[in-house]
UniProtKB/TrEMBL annotation:
Residues 202-236 form the C4-type zinc ribbon domain. This is Uncharacterized protein. It holds the Pfam family Zn_ribbon_9. The lineage of its organism: Bacteria, Bacillati, Actinomycetota, Actinomycetes, Actinopolysporales. Residues 72-96 are annotated as: Disordered.
Length: 244
């Protein structure tokens, strides 16, 4: 293939732009902000799970307090009924039985109140734990939101850079012969790099030094010949700095 040397040299600018576009795409896929978001999401889930567990434990304690309160009310209601019966009965046997039951109920009431006090203390401590868990969730959510904001900002910067490079690419492509551009694009799609600067006996695309026979062929090639690397297939663009 033949192509004007100036057009071939234009491929070097195009290759630089394409390399930058590749770096932008790689950066987009490997943003450190993405890893930070993943870590923040995991932390937020853990803190939220801990908060749910703390709320569940508090609900269980609240139900236990309500159960004990209900039992205390039942005991006190029974005591009130027994006292009323003692006031209205004249049977010494019934009075003795009622008095014994009141003593039993009194012990039961004291035990229930002691249990309820212990559970209420645990409930108070659990309320504190839940408050701390809620604050931890708020902190984790704020950290996640900040990580997402940083990601969005980084992506916006990359999008802006990409738009500039695409505009540069469009301008460069417009000035290239169709057959040369098609060859470049085909090589780039297959090998990743379509062209490189030939300098110091090395291909600028794969960075490998060409052998003597290939070097002789490059030196003998006409200035408008399109020379390709035997190793990577890229177009080796020759300039006045190629050392030929």
């Amino acid at each position: 293939m033949k192509a004007d040397p100036a057009a071939q040299q234009r491929l070097l600018e195009l290759a630089k732009v394409d390399a930058e576009l590749n770096r932008i795409n790689h950066r987009r896929r490997t943003l450190p902000e993405l890893e930070r978001i993943g870590e923040a999401e995991r932390e937020a889930r853990e803190k939220r799970d801990a908060m749910v567990a703390a709320q569940t434990a508090l609900d269980d304690l609240q139900r236990e307090v309500e159960r004990l309160e209900n039992e205390v009310d039942q005991v006190r209601a029974r005591q009130q009924r027994d006292r009323q019966m003692m006031d209205s009965t004249g049977s010494s046997k019934q009075l003795e039985d009622l008095q014994h039951e009141l003593e039993t109920l009194s012990r039961r009431e004291a035990a229930l109140e002691e249990d309820m006090l212990e559970v209420m203390e645990r409930r108070e401590a659990q309320e504190t734990d839940l408050s701390h868990s809620r604050k931890a969730v708020e902190t984790a959510d704020a950290r996640l939101e900040d990580a997402r904001h940083q990601r969005d900002q980084a992506l916006a910067d990359l999008d802006s850079d990409e738009a500039k490079r695409l505009a540069e690419r469009e301008s460069l492509v417009a000035g290239l012969p169709e057959d040369l551009l098609n060859l470049y694009e085909r090589i780039r799609n297959q090998r990743g790099t379509g062209a490189g600067h030939f300098q110091g006996g090395r291909c600028g695309a794969c960075r490998l030094e060409v052998d003597r026979a290939a070097l002789a062929a490059v030196r003998e090639a006409a200035s408008d010949d399109v020379v390709r690397c035997e190793e990577c297939g890229a177009i080796m663009v020759r300039t006045k700095d190629s050392g030929l």
